[in-house]
Design brief:
With about 100 residues, the chain is mostly helical. The chain is built from four helices and no strands. Helix 2 packs across helix 3 and helix 3 packs across helix 4. It starts with 7 loop residues before the first helix and ends in a 7-residue tail after the last helix.
Length: about 100
């Protein structure tokens, strides 16, 4: 995978739907989020769902201009994944859903 700096230009290209940037964004963060969620021993279907929900929430916020600190993009995506994961556990009464 090519390396891209997370800078304002990257965010602008992501907002504009640049295919190369979008592909990089999904590939890069899918790999990291998958590793993070697998370490929690979640079912594969739940992992896929949580990753998709993370991307959806992140892109909605990014496109709405609610996030502009490109250097902190990784931490931002990780934080959203944490929010989504907490919601997942709350929705299953403290147990991972199967």
């Amino acid at each position: 995978m090519n390396w891209y700096p997370f800078n304002q230009d990257y965010l602008l290209r992501l907002r504009e739907g640049d295919p190369e940037t979008t592909t990089h964004f999904f590939a890069y963060f899918t790999q990291l989020l998958s590793r993070k969620l697998r370490s929690r021993k979640l079912p594969e279907k739940a992992i896929d769902d949580l990753i998709q929900k993370t991307f959806l929430r992140a892109l909605i916020r990014i496109n709405a201009g609610k996030f502009n600190d490109a250097a902190r993009l990784g931490a931002y995506i990780n934080g959203i994944c944490n929010e989504i994961t907490i919601e997942y556990y709350r929705g299953s009464n403290g147990r991972a859903k199967n």
